[in-house]
Amino acid sequence: MNRIQKRERLRQGLQTLLEQGGAGARLPSERELSERFDVARETLRRCLDELEEEGLLQRKQGAGTFVSAPPVVKEARLLSFSEEMRERGMEPSSRLLRHQTVLAGAKLAQRLMVTPGSAVIEIRRLRLANNEPMALETSCVALSRLPGFDPAALVNGSLYELLDKKYGLQLRSAQQQIHATVLSEDEAGLLGVAPFSPSLMIERTSTSSKGEVIEYAKSLYRADRYRFEIGVMR
Asked: CA-to-CA distance for 70 and 72, rounded, in angstroms?
């Protein structure tokens, strides 16, 4: 058996292990794997590196190598995080990291279509699905639109549902920009991944059914758990 055939057999064997183990399963040690597939440690590590880059497995320092859960597919529809997760049979929740009232600078005021210096509520949350961290989200809404706002309502609730039910604000459309970026050490710690892991940053400006800009949000999604699908027509 030549080197290419041996490497292909190794990859197929590892993929079979991943499929058999299922999401969250721990793989045997590198020593056990190299002996099982009769390959050098260096060859094994290169193959594991490739599978990790493809999002099929995850290495946790001091804990081992684990099978990754399949990525959540995010379609180009205006849904809240909670709505998306429920559609996929997952239980959404949030950890409220910070909420504060700030004065809108020129750029934020332009995005929200308010006067510079207007009071804006800034809400930063860690978004989870089935108790697994998925995204870091910062939402900004003009204070004048949220009289009597109670941030505790967002711990297990959706901002979009709150806007609709309590304030009568139905969101109709949004403009989104998607960027590739990397996570800082603090961001990675909250999301439970290695520092400087790849991430998808989404900036979104949402508009109500009356044509008013309601929310400006910036979200960081784990690149290993999210995939975006956009349908196009000619």
From this structure: 7
